[in-house]
Amino acid sequence: MIETIALCKNFGDLEVLRGITETVRNGEVISVIGPSGSGKSTFLRCLNLLESPTSGTVVFDGVSLTDRGVDLNLHRQKMGMVFQHFNVFPHLTVLQNITLAPVLLKKRSRPDAEAYARELLARVGLSDKAQEHPRRLSGGQKQRLAIVRALAMDPEVMLFDEPTSALDPEMVGEVLQVIKNLVLQGMTCVIVTHEMGFAREVSSRVLFMDEGRIEEQGSPEELFDRPRSPRTQAFLSKVLR
Amino acid sequence: MFDNFGPNIARVLEKYWGLFLQGAGYTLLLSFITVFFGTILGSALALMRRSRFKPANALATGYVELMRGTPLLLQLYFFYFMLPELLPLLNLSKFACVSIALVFNSAAYVCEIVRAGIQAVDPGQTEAARTLGLSARQAMTRIVLPQAVKNILPALGNEFVTVIKETSLASTFFVGDLMTQYSTVRGTMFLVLEPLVVVGVIYFLLTFFLSKLVNSLERRMKASD
Ligand SMILES: Nc1ncnc2c1ncn2[C@@H]1O[C@H](COP(=O)(O)OP(=O)(O)O)[C@@H](O)[C@H]1O
Ligand SMILES: [Mg+2]
Predict the structure, then answer these.
(1) pLDDT bucket at B223, cuts 50 / 70 / 90
(2) Quick one: which of A26, A201, A223, B10 is 20 to 30 A from A113 by CA?
(3) What pLDDT is stored for residue B1 in this prediction?
(4) pLDDT of A64-102, one tens digit each?
(5) Which residues place a Cβ less than 5 A from the ion ligand 2?
């Protein structure tokens, strides 16, 4: 579904991604772990070209997104993204946050979009918040809203960049549960996370990134229980303790 | 000089209150014209400064630097004497020439206000909009600008307060503003201090209450997000 070929990204002199060739297949749930600064976010943001790669190719549904003249906006509609800091729209109500893009881009009628939004809100336990402004929501609620906002576009894949890192501990569970439910429904996901227990539980594959490369990858059992690379071992021994 | 200060103030007010009122009216009108058209021109400049089209960007940047780097009084002289030369057919009045100078000056400052207001919106907002599939333009008009307005409006209010004071320079050309009326009264009553105090108090009252208004507007906007 998404394929990167020799993906490189530099920020000035800093080589953040050093040649990543990787494929995300339909229905896969991929967790990306690794030390901070290893390029996980940059890798994720290259998948929908929020960062444009310095070199290399990103192919989505057979279309090379890195080619000139590709309608990125159209392809981005099919890739939902959830950020560490939620980035919900503070000037819109919860419902407007969700319906904005479907009405504007998919030409859905407002009643249709709202009905769908309410259905999605019910699934994440936010039914009673539809008319609120986001400033009245807790962090966990904002993140659930951000997920629903992405889902309202019926994406083929969801990209999560540390979706629980900015949350108070007591709210982490509710957001992870929402992601778990998505996974159970068969959504293709790429999740950058520091929640190792969660990664082990939901992932079909885990990528360990270090210094801009994918140092090691495998099933959760392989990677967490029998890591081969010394770097992976060192990292896991620090975070799992 | 301070002999009869109180009685003189009373005399000045009694005789010329109408003139001062008219002057205050002109000052406010001039300030309003300046900020209103300055906002339109300034927003256009801000757009140019954000554009990827290099010449537009360079032109706007140069313009802003020039207007902010030279004295307003000099610009007033320039427009006052050059505009009728350049556009003789328009038959511009003194008031129009001075207004245009003030507008062109204020636009440079408004440009920076608009730019700063847009930049103050979290870049994560644009990113979230773009990942949903919105174009750069849609993200700007639907997501960024509505939030930037909350930063821009109070700053424009402050610009208005600043402009009220700056329009006093326009009195150099006797356009009827508050400071012009001061000169008139000084000349006819042979009093320097008393009309100055009266005019000063009027300026202060105008700016003081407008500032208060801007502050409360600002607080209301902060509270709503
Ligand atoms: N926009 C940027 N400009 C400059 N450097 C950046 C930018 N984004 C990320 N970096 C740098 O790239 C490196 C990798 O960042 P990131 O992908 O966010 O790592 P991770 O998500 O694994 O913590 C870091 O050293 C970071 O400082
Ligand atoms: Mg990161």
Answers:
(1) confident
(2) A26
(3) 61
(4) 999 988 999 999 999 999 999 999 999 999 999 999 999
(5) A 41
Shortest Cα–Cα distance, A224 to chain B (Å): 32
Q: Where are the alpha helices (DSSP H) in A106-229?
A: 110-123, 139-151, 169-184, 196-202, 220-225
What angle do helix axes B5-50 and B193-223 make, rounded to 10 degrees?
40
Residue from A8, A10, A15, A16 whose mutation best tests the ligand 1 pocket (most atoms within 8 A of CB): A16
B67 touches B107 (CB < 8 A)? yes
Q: CA-based angle A153:A156:A161, to the nearest 5?
A: 85
- Which tokens go with A106? 């998919």
Of A41, A43, A194, A210, which is best to mutate to test ligand 1, by the most ligand atoms within 8 angstroms of its C-beta?
A41
Question: Buried b / exposed e across A212-234, counting CB within 10 Å, b at 16+?
Answer: bbbbbbbebeebbeebeeebbee
Q: How many CB pairs under 8 A join A and B?
A: 59
- The pLDDT > 90 percentage for chain B reads 77
Domains and CATH numbers, chain B: 5-224 (1.10.3720.10)
Q: What percent of chain B has pLDDT over 70?
A: 98
* Mean pLDDT, residues B144-165 taken together: 94
What ipTM, to 2 d.p.? 0.92
Residue pair B210/B164 in contact by the 8 Å Cβ criterion: yes
Structure tokens at B149: 């307005």
